[in-house]
Design brief:
By secondary structure, the protein is α/β, with parallel strands linked by helices. The chain is built from 8 helices and 5 strands. Strand 4 (167-171), helix 7 (182-199) and strand 5 form a beta-alpha-beta unit.
C-alpha cells in the first residue's frame, strides 16, 4: 500500500511537469517584448523631478494637466526652467485654469506610464489632461508605430483608471526633421504619421478622449521653419504661441463639458 501511495502522489507531479513544460514552450522566449508598454523609471535626477511632481499632485487643486516629454517640459510652470520658451505663455494662458505641467525631457511612453503608476496621479482628478508623447520612441528601430500607439493607449487607460471623469486631449505627435539622411527622415516621418493615424481612433467625440492634430500649424509646406522649431524638434516661443492658440478653445470646451 505504501508503494502504491507513492506512485499516486507522483502522478499529479508528473502531469504538472508536462503541463508547465507545455506552457513554457507556448511563451515563445524569442518573441519581442513591446518596451513602450512596460512601465520603467530612469536615472536618479529624473526620479527627483518625478518626486517633485508627486509633491505637487499631493497638494491637489489641479484641473488641467500637461503630460509628456521635453516638448511639454518646455511649457514651464512649477518644477521647470522659468526661462523655458513656453513659460510666459503658460503663466498667462493656462495657470489661471489651475494648470500644472508634468512634462520631462527625454521621456518615452513607458516612463510616463511609470510616473502615473507611482504617485503623479494620486490625489488629483483633473478635468483635462493634454497628452503628447511618443516622439522619443520613434527613433531608429526602438519601437514600431503599432508599439508606440499601444504605449500611448496604455497611458490613456491608466489616466482613466485613476480618474474616470478626466477628459484626455490627445495630441498627434508633432512633425520633426532630425533625420541624418533623407532615408532616415522619411522612415521616421512615416512612422510618426502611422502612430497618429492609429491613435486618432481613440477619439470618442470628447466624451473621454479628444484627438487633435495640430502638426500642420508648425509647417510651411513640407518645411518646418527654424523660427518655429530651431532644431527641427523643439519649439521656440513662437511655436508655443501657435500651440496655445490651437488648443485653448478645445481645452476650455472639454473643461466645461459634463
Amino acid at each position: 500500500m505504501l508503494r502504491l501511495s507513492r506512485v499516486l502522489l507522483l502522478v499529479p507531479v508528473a502531469v504538472l511537469t508536462v503541463t508547465l513544460l507545455g506552457s513554457a514552450q507556448d511563451l515563445k522566449p524569442n518573441a519581442k517584448v513591446n518596451t513602450a508598454v512596460q512601465p520603467a523609471p530612469r536615472d536618479p535626477n529624473w526620479k527627483k523631478r518625478h518626486e517633485q511632481f508627486v509633491e505637487i499632485a499631493k497638494r491637489g487643486g489641479i484641473e488641467l494637466l500637461f503630460l509628456g516629454d521635453s516638448i511639454t517640459d518646455a511649457w514651464g510652470g512649477e518644477g521647470h526652467n522659468p526661462k523655458s520658451p513656453g513659460a510666459a505663455i503658460f503663466e498667462k494662458e493656462f495657470l489661471p485654469l489651475k494648470a500644472a505641467n508634468f512634462g520631462i525631457g527625454g521621456d518615452r511612453t513607458q516612463h510616463v506610464l511609470w510616473r502615473l503608476q507611482n504617485g503623479e496621479f494620486d490625489g488629483i482628478t483633473p478635468k483635462v489632461v493634454m497628452l503628447m508623447i511618443g516622439t522619443n520612441n520613434s527613433n531608429g528601430k526602438d519601437n514600431t508605430a503599432e508599439e508606440i500607439a499601444e504605449g500611448i493607449q496604455a497611458i490613456v487607460r491608466e489616466i482613466h483608471k485613476r480618474s474616470p471623469k478626466t477628459k484626455v486631449l490627445l495630441l498627434a505627435i508633432f512633425p520633426r526633421a532630425t533625420g541624418k539622411t533623407p532615408e532616415i527622415q522619411k522612415e521616421q516621418t512615416e512612422k510618426i504619421n502611422k502612430v497618429n493615424e492609429i491613435i486618432a481612433k481613440l477619439d470618442d467625440g470628447g466624451k473621454t478622449v479628444k484627438f487633435l492634430d495640430i502638426g500642420a500649424k508648425f509647417k510651411d509646406g513640407d518645411m518646418i521653419p527654424k523660427d518655429i522649431m530651431p532644431d527641427q524638434l523643439h519649439l521656440s516661443s513662437k511655436g508655443y504661441r501657435i500651440w496655445a492658440d490651437a488648443v485653448k478653445e478645445t481645452i476650455l470646451q472639454l473643461m466645461e463639458a459634463k
